[in-house]
Amino acid sequence: MMMSHNTLTGALILLTGIALLVFIIFKLFPRTNQKADQDTKALLLIFTLLGVGLLGMGSWVCFI
Predict the structure, then answer these.
(1) What is the pTM of this model?
(2) Which three-class secondary structure state does DSSP give residue 35?
(3) Where does the sequence pass through the membrane (predicted)?
């Protein structure tokens, strides 16, 4: 069974968002300690928002 172009594209975007969030949670958050500087915290926030945005966009494209 072949997937339509929108479903395939949405699924790939969704998987990218999931992979980014898993990487952030298991690799980047444990390496930052309580004394992390403001730049590190800002980048983690930006990358987390990017991962959540990819999840939203992938699910929107996939399920329309």
Answers:
(1) 0.81
(2) coil
(3) 12-30, 42-61
Give yes or no for a contact between 4 and 61, defined as CB atoms under 8 angstroms apart: no
Task: Return d(Cα 35, Cα 12) in angstroms, integer.
Answer: 36
Could you give the CA distance from residue 61 to residue 44 in angstroms, rounded to a whole number?
26
For residue 49, give Cα distances in angstroms to 4, 5, 18.
28, 26, 12
* Residue carrying the six token digits 């004394």: 35
Does 1 have pLDDT greater than 60? no
Burial (0-12, 13-18, 19+ Cβ within 10 Å), 18 = middle
Q: Which letter does DSSP use for residue 2 in this model?
A: P
